[in-house]
Design goal:
Keywords: Amino-acid biosynthesis, Aminotransferase, Arginine biosynthesis, Cytoplasm, Pyridoxal phosphate, Transferase. The protein is an alpha/beta fold. Helices cover 38% and strands 18% of the residues.
């Protein structure tokens, strides 16, 4: 049974069909390049959906993986471990937080955040304060609770009644938020940049209004930084560029550079509502994941790396502007740092997947954010040569789609 020959067709034969993967099978990566099973190379502008922040096969992360892999992989949370304690210290030194809960994914981090918010409200105010405010087109994970809180009904339909007490408001609508947040609100959860919803940055005034309304009504403000966190926007966490501090922050994706790990960060008074047995996880915070994440934090928090993210983002935006001048294809290019969304004009509405497929044919791995938006989330340290080569290939893909 060893070394069976597998192809993209094997996926259709052995996997549950909830994904529709690309027609090629990646087998190796180095830095910002990936090779498929046929030996063809790709420039990686997708970053494993904003995950491989330090590229593929990063030598410093490989060293930590090998060192910790020879010591201790997993011990269970009947015990603590040194790497997870060091990781918590690092994240708390870089943020508002002084308590951390580690999980395996962004969805689990958000699940913990939402449960904590409801538990805190229950213990502080009683059972009537349970309402969660979220926003249209938001995305918070695929557990039943998080997908119900997310503002895209297509992901929660067909699974039976959704949890009660969840409201969805228009994103960036200050008046709607002020009108909705009230005595029954236990939490407001918001992405500082909506990722899956189209790469839409929050207006800082909107975030300030959420903070003020939460304070006025004893509600907790949760920032979902699963996609924006750990350097993606050019700041270690996106909230640090908004003037607004949340009560709870969730992070995953880039935190492990591809090794599964998520975290919920908060303060001691809020964390006190999660006493032993109230919430838990088997794998969360295991020493192997925590050791890798600790090195990621060390590397990404370097001010020079964060400045480089902002500079690379500006270069991509400038090049996309040139492509627009040639092809008249984008209605808007938006985002922060190296989380960029290029929305197609109405003439090309619904064709984001066509551009995605053409890019792959030209050797570029891309993302979309809905049917009309091309999304860029490459490595935070993508070399200039790879950036230029990828954008040149992307121009060829545009020629293929647009016929000129």
């Amino acid at each position: 049974m060893n070394d069976q020959h597998v192809t993209r067709k094997t996926f259709d034969e052995v996997m549950v069909p909830c994904f529709s993967p690309a027609p090629f099978v990646p087998v190796r990566g180095l830095g910002s390049r990936v090779w498929d099973s046929e030996g063809r190379d790709y420039i990686d502008f997708a970053g494993g959906i904003a995950v491989t922040a330090l590229g593929h096969a990063n030598p410093e992360l490989l060293r930590v993986l090998n060192e910790q892999g020879g010591k201790l992989w997993h011990i269970g949370n009947g015990y603590t471990n040194e790497p997870v304690l060091r990781l918590a210290q690092k994240l708390e030194a870089l943020t508002f937080a002084n308590r951390a809960f580690f999980a395996n994914s962004g969805a689990e981090a958000n699940e913990a955040a939402l449960k904590l918010a409801r538990r805190a409200a229950f213990e502080r105010f009683g059972e009537d304060k349970f309402e969660i405010i979220s926003f249209e087109q938001s995305f918070h994970g695929r557990t039943f609770f998080t997908v119900s809180v997310g503002g895209q009904p297509k992901y929660s339909e067909g699974f039976g009644p959704v949890p009660a007490g969840i409201r969805h408001l228009p994103y960036n609508d200050i008046e709607a938020a002020r009108a909705a947040i009230g005595p029954k609100t236990c939490a407001v959860i918001v992405e500082p940049v909506q990722g899956e919803g189209g790469v839409i940055p929050a207006d800082p005034a909107f975030l300030r209004a959420l903070r003020e309304a939460c304070d006025a009504h004893g509600a907790l403000l949760i920032f979902d930084e699963v996609q924006t966190g750990v350097g993606r926007t050019g700041h270690f966490y996106a909230y640090q560029d908004t003037g607004v501090t949340p009560d709870i922050l969730t992070s995953a994706k880039s935190l492990g550079n591809g090794f599964p790990i998520g975290v919920m960060l908060t303060t001691e008074p809020i964390a006190a509502h999660f006493q032993p047995g109230v919430h838990g996880t088997t794998y969360g915070g295991n020493p192997l994941a925590a050791a890798i994440a600790g090195k990621v934090v060390d590397l990404v928090s370097d001010p020079a790396v964060l400045a480089g993210v902002r500079q690379r983002g500006e270069r991509i935006r400038a090049r996309l502007g040139e492509l627009h001048e040639r092809f008249d294809v984008f209605r808007e290019v938006r985002g922060k740092g190296l989380l960029i969304g290029a929305e197609l004009t109405s003439r090309h509405a619904g064709r984001a997947k066509d551009f995605l497929a053409a890019a792959a044919n030209r050797g570029v791995m891309m993302l979309i954010a809905g049917p009309d938006v091309l999304r860029f989330a490459p490595s935070l340290i993508i070399p200039e040569a790879d950036l230029a080569e990828g954008l040149a290939r992307l121009e060829q893909a545009f020629e293929d789609v647009l016929g000129r």
